[in-house]
Design goal:
It contains 11 helices and 4 strands; from the N terminus they run E-E-H-H-H-H-E-E-H-H-H-H-H-H-H. It is mostly helical.
């Protein structure tokens, strides 16, 4: 498999911590996501918007890419993760990312997404109807709840550790509730700490379809409480 960006760098990872300053469309930006050192973010170039408009798969890949949230730089293999979420092979993901090569580049520790494009993709005023951020959180959430297998341990670890983050960022839907109801992931030991937060999120909703999930989670938390009372320490 030939990497469209760099054959010498087969595994792509998030770069969030390395601070470097470059010129993009005449504006300096900082690779440290969310840093205050960004002086100005220009409007999305017309050519980039056109590329996104003409390529639905690119929009989907970038939509998934921009909602991912690894804890540490270099811990999550990015292209395999996006590949797994979308059910596409890595070569196809690399190929579609090559269409926005000025904004997605290889560095010595992996793949870096330009800060400007991250901001554009998250801004509805820039993307219009092209990208729906809650939709992509939902896609990642349902994939995570399915307990995916991957040859990359970092991909499976991401699913186990971040399912709740994407659930609570996603748009409430019957598909999401069914995924929560059918999945064993929320009831695994590694999910014990985040389960109360997800339950509270579910209880705040006003829509139908979540009642069965709420009961499952409430019963599970009651069971955990009884077990902890019976076996303290």
């Amino acid at each position: 498999m030939v990497d469209q960006f760099s054959a010498a760098q087969p595994e792509s990872v998030f770069i969030l911590g390395n601070v470097t300053t470059n010129e993009v469309h005449g504006t300096q930006y900082n690779h440290h996501y969310g840093a205050d050192s960004v002086a100005h973010v220009p409007d999305m170039p017309t050519e980039l918007y056109r590329i996104l408009e003409e390529d639905p798969l690119l929009c989907i890949v970038l939509g998934v890419l921009v909602v991912l949230k690894p804890d540490e730089p270099g811990t999550v293999p990015l292209v395999p993760l996006v590949s797994g979420v979308l059910g596409r092979n890595e070569e196809e993901v690399n190929k579609v990312l090559a269409k926005v090569r000025p904004y997605v580049k290889r560095e010595h520790t992996g793949l870096a997404l330009d800060e400007n494009i991250r901001r554009w993709l998250k801004d509805p005023e820039q993307t219009g109807d092209l990208l729906d951020i809650p939709k992509y959180h939902g896609i990642v959430a349902r994939w995570s709840l399915a307990r995916p297998w991957s040859a990359y341990p970092g991909v499976m670890l991401y699913a186990a550790e971040k399912w709740h983050y994407h659930v609570m960022k996603a748009r409430r839907s019957q598909d999401l509730y069914r995924a929560l109801q059918d999945s064993l992931t929320p009831r695994r030991k590694y999910s014990q700490q985040c389960l109360p937060e997800v339950l509270a999120w579910l209880q705040k909703g006003m829509d139908h379809g979540r009642e069965a999930v709420i009961k499952i989670f409430e019963d599970h938390l009651k069971l955990l409480s009884r077990l902890q009372s019976a076996c303290p320490g």
